[in-house]
Amino acid sequence: MSRIVVADTSPLIGLQRIDRLDLLRDLFGEVLVPPAVMDEFVRRASPPAWLVERQPPVPLDSRVSATPLGSGEREAIALAQHVGVDWIVLDDEAGRRLAATLGLPVIGTLGVVLLAKQEGVIDAVRPLVDALTAVNFHLSPQLVARMLRDADERDTDA
Length: 158
Prior knowledge:
Blueprint: E1 5-7, H1 9-17, H2 22-28, E2 31-33, H3 35-42, E3 51-53, H4 62-65, H5 71-83, E4 87-89, H6 93-101, E5 106-107, H7 109-118, H8 126-134, H9 141-150
Helix pairs in contact: 2-7, 3-5
């Protein structure tokens, strides 16, 4: 079953930094990104073939363009609205709130990791959480604890 997914830069960079960008491909196949996200990502890494650049509609929805979000978040949300996504992969809290307000299903980096375990792509989430922490990827301790509970993995730090 193919899913339509749009991603923002932060999840791409976080997963790339721990050498697990493949989770997105394994879960979703193709991942759409707007130009601003592709530009931010290619400054750090070469994009894989399954990361597909797609233009958001112009002009952007006024509810999106009027926000103080970065260009990547704005374009990702606008693109997700335009193509009708199964998920928008987004970590920025203000961006997540706006996307949810607009009726978009939101998943973040940790949600991708949890989904990967639930779908049998990985055996455990803890090693990836530890790897993200090791590369200074910002993770809320409360969110990590909740995810570990949802994954049926004991939070050894609690």
